[in-house]
Design a protein that fits this description.
about 10% strand; Rossmann fold; 10 strands; Helicase, Ruva Protein, domain 3; about 55% helix; 24 helices; alpha/beta; Zinc Finger, Delta Prime, domain 3; 3-stranded mixed beta sheet
């Protein structure tokens, strides 16, 4: 037997299996139960929301000879032979939209049903009928035989003449809520033995834009990968879109004005055949989510995305986001008629930095006194920043030393067990620190010291610039005071290598007070294997030493 697509296999067979459209289902169900069936229905709404499925269910319900609580029995002749019932006529108006096809319908409606109580005509994409075809259908709709039911389905009801609309009961189908789609996908995944990560299901639901059929098709396509676990990265691949990680990186580079890395990201997108229009759309949605979080603290259902949203919301102002969304939206219109969309996006992003520079220069040239004043202020700020930087670097060396000297793998494991609870803190004065540490991973813990590592150097810098706030957050969750230090990935790799090299030389890390910068390290003490000792401290799962 040939393979049956999942969206066909799991098409709802009765009203109880319909997902969403609660109001529509309630009205239809009551009408049939009370024998108040209309001769013409018009179902309108986005694709994949259940219009045709409900039309078929109605056709089955009105002809079932043993309907119980609105559920077809599945045993009577009409239920068993529904798919081959000549009294149920499905017509695709996109390919049968002429007056001749409608005239044929008019000639046949007078014939009584062969096997059923009602002859049901289901006309999909009815808006595709020609004006002459609509006119030919009008008389039949106005005075239909008692045994005829018309069910029209369309995504563009505004194209249907008012004379037709006024003779139908109109039902608006809405986009299906993501939660309902995910719930349905989980059920199908379980039935089909498809192991899929929840974040991937939420991404599928978002991409399907409220359409159940599209979401099931995505799942069907992903199932063909035959993987032990389908992840959100697989969804990105089949959709030819980039990951949230890459979008986050691009926004970080925009924030840091790193032109070279912005160019590298765009060249990667171009060389890997990603759709640039889709990329900009995803970028817009991501920035929109940041704006929503800034104003409402509302997050998405995808945890990995939320961590990035929280972190970036601390850096981007609302004004920047408003302007950025407007610029990207305007760019989308230009890209659709351009043969070089990637270049246009690259120019648009790089131009932002140059424009900012020009405006500053122009303002200073207009007022020499202001220029001198601001220059002096910049010198003072630079000196203060340099002082703070030197202070932090000194503190960093001490805390790296003390963490290594006191750390153990057992303490790290216990600390990690509660790390996820940081995201649950909702205090107004601490929420910004939740966003900062969301990108970090604890790599070494010793007594009252914790070493964090972030992929982004800017995140580590911001944490070290406000250690008291981060330490307050940690104390809130762990009910214990810890001294924190944050490193970038490069700094962490350097610290590991330095630790191993020092151990090879016989140098043992021992605790030193923070009010001194002198390292107290024993040089002649016998030690174990340097790598083995490091594994005892941080665990071998995060050691990469060559």
């Amino acid at each position: 037997m040939s393979y049956l697509a999942l969206y066909r296999k799991y098409r709802p067979k009765n009203l109880n299996e319909m997902v969403g459209q609660k109001n529509v289902i309630e009205v239809i169900s009551n009408a049939i139960k009370n024998n108040k069936i209309s001769h013409a229905y018009l179902f309108t709404g986005p694709r994949g929301t259940g219009k045709t499925s409900l039309a078929k269910i109605i056709a089955k319900m009105v002809n079932c000879t043993d309907l119980k609580d609105g559920v077809p029995c599945g045993k009577c002749y009409n239920c068993r032979n529904f798919d081959n019932n000549s009294d149920i006529i499905e017509i695709d108006a996109a390919s049968n939209n002429g007056i001749e096809e409608i005239r044929e319908i008019r000639e046949k409606v007078a014939l009584v049903p062969a096997f059923s109580k009602y002859k049901v005509y289901i006309i999909d994409e009815v808006h595709m009928l020609t004006t002459q075809a609509f006119n030919a259908l009008l008389k039949t709709l106005e005075e239909p035989p008692e045994h005829i039911i018309f069910i029209f389905a369309t995504t563009e009801f505004y194209k249907i003449p008012a004379t037709i609309l006024s003779r139908c009961q109109k039902f608006q189908f809405n986009k299906i809520d993501d939660e309902l789609i995910v719930e349905r996908l989980k059920l199908i995944s379980k039935e089909e033995n498809i192991n899929v990560d929840e974040s991937a299901l939420y991404e599928i639901a978002r991409l399907s834009d409220g359409g159940m059929r599209d979401s099931i098709n995505y799942l069907d396509q992903l199932a063909s990968l035959n993987k032990d676990l389908i992840t959100i990265e697989d969804v990105f691949d089949i959709n030819c879109s980039v990951s949230y990680e890459m979008i986050n990186e691009l926004l970080e580079y925009i924030l840091n004005k790193d032109r070279l890395k912005i160019i590298n990201v765009l060249e990667f997108i171009d060389k890997n055949g990603k759709n640039i229009n889709k990329f900009i759309e995803e970028l817009l949605i991501f920035v929109k989510d940041i704006l929503i979080y800034k104003n409402t603290n509302k997050l998405t259902k995808i945890k990995s995305k939320n961590e990035k949203i929280i972190a970036l919301s601390l850096d981007f102002t609302s004004d920047f986001i408003y302007k950025f969304i407007g610029e990207m939206n305007d760019l989308l219109g230009k890209i659709k008629v351009s043969e070089y969309p990637t270049i246009l996006l690259m120019v648009s992003l790089l131009k932002k930095f140059d424009e900012n520079t020009k405006r500053t220069v122009k303002k200073l040239d207009a007022n020499e006194t202001l220029e001198m004043k601001e220059t002096l202020e910049k010198v003072n700020i630079s000196a203060e920043t340099e002082y703070d930087k030197n202070k932090i670097e000194g503190l960093k060396k001490i805390r790296i030393n003390n963490t290594f000297s006191l750390a153990s793998k057992e303490m790290l494991i216990k600390f990690k067990d509660l790390w996820k609870n940081l995201s649950l803190v909702s205090d107004d004065d601490l929420i910004k620190y939740v966003g900062l540490v969301a990108d970090c991973l604890p790599v070494a813990v010793g007594d009252s010291y914790v070493m964090l590592v972030s992929k982004y150097e800017s995140t580590a810098t911001r944490i070290n610039a406000d250690l008291s706030g981060v330490e307050t957050l940690i104390k809130k969750v762990y009910s214990k005071s810890y001294k924190i230090i944050a490193l970038s990935e490069n700094e962490w790799n350097s610290a590991k290598i330095e630790y191993i090299n020092n151990r090879k030389k016989g140098i043992v890390y021992s605790y030193i007070e923070e009010n001194t910068t002198e390292h107290n390290q024993d040089k002649n003490k016998k030690i174990d294997s340097p790598v083995d000792k490091l594994i005892e401290i941080v665990g071998e799962d995060i050691i990469e030493y060559k």
